[in-house]
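Quick start: what a row looks like.
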Amino acid sequence: MGVTLLLWASAFVAIRHLGHDVTPGALSLGRLLVGSVALSFLLLRGRRARLTRNEVLLLLLCGIAWFGIYNIALNDSERRIDAATAAMLVQIGPIVVALLAAVFLGERLTPWLLGGIAVAFAGVVVIGLAMRGHGGSDVSGVLLALLAAVTYAVGVVSQKVLLRRLSGLEVVCYACWIGVVVCLPWSGDLVGVVRHGSGADLAWIAYLGTFPTALAFSLWAYALRHTDAGKQAITTFLVPGITAVLAWVLLDEVPPALAFAGGLLCIFGVLLTRRKPRAVSTVRV
């Protein structure tokens, strides 16, 4: 999981770097296209299962939500807010995963989980207020990041169900291609980037497709197959901190202090969800 978290954190920085030169749709399409080709090459060399009707529907849900809408919303949000703040906001996703997993997968909701949800959402409010102080247009960036968090959660839960029978490589590859289809309306923008973009921009897109998409999502799916969706999603609370360090080193940007405070609340809320309820002791008489 450590490699996945580092690669996903680097994706926030790369997206922020490309955000002013490449449109959100073109960046999403380019990243997913590179990732899909790489994943297809690996999948052709392995076993492929025959899909059921329900699996096709879940793949469509996962691909449209997590690989399609998520990428476009995240890319657009990082044109308006900095990389670390976007990463902090997306960390509401694990809370939503825990709620959806409790409803649809039968995973337990505990008082600590509910308390963590309240604290984390308070953190989102603080971040929203901090970014509003830096310009009204930034509020739309906050909302887009929250949309990315919700679609990420939908993708994780649907992926968890798919992994009961399919391999992680199959799920990620098929969902990635569905994401490509979602982003096809921006194919003209991508052609313009390929024709007129700098070599550095193209290299960043290739990096996003190969490592944070093909490699990181495959490693994530492998780990998810062997644990609860809620517990797995909580590990991503480390991403904002890693992103903040990478953005400071590579982009020389630091969010407002109040946004960091809100981010810490988000992380604290997620940590609360990891607490286990105290066992009730019984006394024999």
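That is the whole record. The chain has a mean pLDDT of 86. Residues 37 and 71 are 17 Å apart (CA to CA).
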